[in-house]
């Protein structure tokens, strides 16, 4: 059933036809290669997605995507706007459930659990698969309450001291502790954009998830704040599995070990980040990373 | 090769050519806006001026200084000090005696009746109350300010023209002369009328007070608030956050919007049919009034609450859901507190509507003439707007100033409610 052969025989003639016709015949090309270029599997997968289709109403937003997300690796998802990378990311902790017209087909597993199983409770799933959003969205509460909210609702700590410790650790890991330790009772929305985003990351890791999904976490930030978040992602990799959607190819190259290139709802190519950026094998990937479109 | 010709008009010239016209249009629009605001303020000021100029005098009452002798043989001939006897005694006789001693020359029956008519029938009630609370008064003398009749009141307040011919004036020349004698002695004057604010309604204008209607409005509004706020907010929360989008919820939504446009008197008929005739609740009770007004204000509160919930940014919901909050936790921990200021505003607007509502309450009997001040939500009562309606309908000249004064009280309550709404909103917003 899961007949995704890693690294298919593709290319050659199919690739030539793409070159001659520009990038319009993507669909033909995808059919021709019957899947994705490169190795979609991971040696030590935490999450596995197989044959995922996502529909918004009648519109097919993601077509037959299969991808592994490995333990302690950062996987970057890149691609032009509207290619479905964010939609795919939101499938991984079922955030798409909040969109009424959205329908997901296929199979996504966290370890051995099918997360789209009808009996599955999304609350513990989201405690295991946390998410950081494009726009920093701290709660309009104090910094402390922002970070403590997750541990509180999940009952992770039994007393105030433990909770203080969890909050401090989360803020430390997010690299925000030194900046806010004296003003934990100020509102989180009063911080600068970069600080807010790190606060959101602290809020996510306070729950101690296994996977962190990041949806363009730096798109609203300046280069310095972006650099801090990127450093942070690199540090967090040791303990967490991270999937990051980004518009910036440089960012993908800097922070990730594997990169997945999406195009018009299809996963075109997956591979080691170094390989993707130095020797892309698919024409579309090459065009995108060399800046010919996107 | 594509160079613009030298004689071609430059953009800046084109812009300058129409610039003046554009600014003129802007200025004209601003002037229209300003004119509209000034016109609106002018009408409001005119309304307030009119109401206050008519109504301020109702807060004063003309009183006559009389020398009252609490005669034993009139009040308590047996001397038993039995409360039943004291309560049933003819206190009006004491007032009449005092008046006769003041004007010993008055002899004829018609003349006497006119003389007695100068003092309000409420004067006897004042005396009874004094004697009941202190029986020791019996046998003594006291000089007291007692309320004058409403015609004398109007005369003293200048609402009856003293120079008009006798046939066109409600006060006879004789009575006018007596009043002028009293004025000359300083035994008649206008005093602050506390009874207007604390008393119940009366057929006698000089005794009628707004207190009963204020309490009736208060009980009615408490019932309305207690019912409509929780029901309205819960409905809005369910429809906005939890209900599946399907044909049924669409139907409910359309109906709620339709209910907002239903004439309020229809809700009154519904209340009469359901609450009074079917459930057998008492007529004229603030409880039923509050329930009827709840039906009327619910759509307002639901629509405002849903708008407030819609205005909460989805990113807050995503943030909460993203770290594993359940839907209910997301709503109650984050969405509801953020929507609360908007919900409160909607509720206060609804309550202000309810405070000013008359028609549905007529249907459930709150239009009855009720003298006693209601002590609870089950007692028969009337409300401020209905009291205004009743007084405006009364023929006596003196009820005109009462009507205006009642409107002043109603407007005062509306302003108070709006101030409370603003304060509440500010406080909630500061917390978040």
Key attributes of the depicted protein:
heterodimer; A: 294 residues; alpha/beta; Rossmann fold; 7-stranded mixed β-sheet; 4-stranded antiparallel β-sheet; 12 helices; 36% helix; globular; disordered N terminus; B: 432 residues; mainly alpha; MetI-like fold; 3-stranded antiparallel β-sheet; 3 strands; 66% helix; extended
Plain-language structure description:
The complex is a heterodimer of chains A (294) and B (432). Chain A has 294 residues and is an alpha/beta fold. Chain A has one domain (13-289): P-loop containing nucleotide triphosphate hydrolases (Rossmann fold, 3-Layer(aba) Sandwich). Chain A is built from twelve helices and eleven strands. A seven-stranded mixed sheet of chain A has the order 1-11-10-4-9-8-7, with helices on both faces. Chain A has a four-stranded antiparallel sheet with strand order 3-2-5-6, covered by helices on one side. In chain A, a hairpin with a 2-residue loop joins β2 and β3 (59-70). In chain A, α1 (13-20) packs antiparallel against α2 (26-33), α5 (143-154) packs across α6 and α8 packs parallel to α9 (223-236). Chain A is globular and about 55 Å long. Chain A starts with 12 loop residues before the first helix and ends in a 5-residue tail after the last helix. Chain B is extended. Chain B folds into two domains: 57-192, no CATH class; 211-431, MetI-like (MetI-like fold, Orthogonal Bundle), CATH 1.10.3720.10. Chain B starts with 10 loop residues before the first helix and ends with a helix. Chain B is mainly alpha-helical. In chain B, α12 (264-278) packs across α13, α13 crosses α15 (327-355) and α14 (314-322) packs antiparallel against α15. Chain B has a three-stranded antiparallel sheet with strand order 2-1-3. The longest helix of chain B is centred in the N-terminal third of the chain and has 45 residues, at 11-55. Chain B is built from 18 helices and three strands. Chain A binds chain B through residues 93, 95, 98, 100, 123-127, 130-133, 135, 137-141, 149-150, 153-154, 200, 203-204, 207, and chain B through 245, 313, 315-326, 329, 333-334, 338, 432.
